[in-house]
Amino acid sequence: MGRIMHKLDESLLSHLPPFEGLDRGQLREILDRAGSHRFDQGETVFHEGEHAERFFLLLDGYVRVVRITSEGEHVIVLHIPPGQLFGIASAFGHKKYPASTVTAVESIALSWPMRLWSEFAAQYDGFSVETYRTIGKRMTEMHDRMVELATQQVEQRVANALLRLITQTGRKTAEGIEVDFPITRQDLSEMTGSTLHTVSRLLSAWEKQGIVESRRRHIVVARPHQLVILAEAATQRR
Fold first, then answer.
1. pLDDT in tens, the chain (238 residues)
2. Which top CATH class is 11-138?
3. At the top level of CATH, which class does the domain 152-237 belong to?
4. For the chain, which terminal residue's Cβ has fewer other Cβ atoms within 10 angstroms, N or C?
5. Beta-carbon neighbour count of residue 60 at 10 Å?
6. Inter-axis angle of helices 154-169 and 224-237, to 10 degrees?
7. What stretch(es) of the chain map to CATH 1.10.10.10?
């Protein structure tokens, strides 16, 4: 991970929730202690089980949080958008990273030594409140994912996964709402605990119905309401 800029402007942080409300001097202190990094698409920022030496703030791009099962299968747990912290093992009481993080697109991030985590939380108003709020949201999302895996059929899980993606990262186009980074059918299978064959079959059927468009690692949801109906179908049957 190499430095990409020698002097970072305070405006990079002033509008982001963990640092909102801090004065220019405080932001300067934080930036002067940061490392800045550019990652290629598909690059691993850190691996599950590595000693957690740094925590990160994503400035641009998207990153995937990936866990490896005991059978060696990759499971995509979360997608993290710009403006959020990641690699925050200390916040969970961990000394090692509990998951790997891989860039979904070319990405830019700042990082700090993990030893500064408690100092930032104590010294900068709002930092700990906002970061623990973020942790709560992520824990809730992961809990919801586990409930889906345990109670829903594959069709509902894939529909819910697409709805989350367009809600969190969607970009409006003439055709509908596009997931704002490259995503493959294999990625969707890893997000939903299903097989590549099953995801391909579902997307092909949904394309014929005009619900989605899938091409060249990009997915556009043309009829979001129809996906909502599919996602809720399991709940209605129970």
1. 544 445 678 888 988 988 988 889 999 999 999 999 999 999 999 999 999 999 999 999 999 999 888 787 888 988 999 999 999 998 888 999 999 999 999 999 999 999 999 999 899 877 888 888 888 888 888 888 888 888 889 999 999 999 999 998 899 999 999 999 999 999 999 999 899 999 999 999 999 999 999 888 899 999 999 999 998 874 444 4
2. mainly beta
3. mainly alpha
4. C
5. 12
6. 140
7. 152-237
Single-letter amino acid code for the residue at 65: V
The ranges of the chain annotated as CATH 2.60.120.10 are: 11-138
From CA 131, how far away is CA 18, in angstroms rounded?
A: 6
Q: Which of 194, 205, 188, 208 is nearest to 153 (CA)?
A: 194
State the helix-helix crossing angle for 196-208 and 154-169, rounded to 10 degrees: 70
Closest by alpha carbon to 81, among 66, 97, 65? 65
The β-bridge partners of 56 are: 86, 111
* Residue 190, both tokens: 């890893």
What's the number of CA atoms in the CB half-sphere (13 Å) around residue 47?
Answer: 2
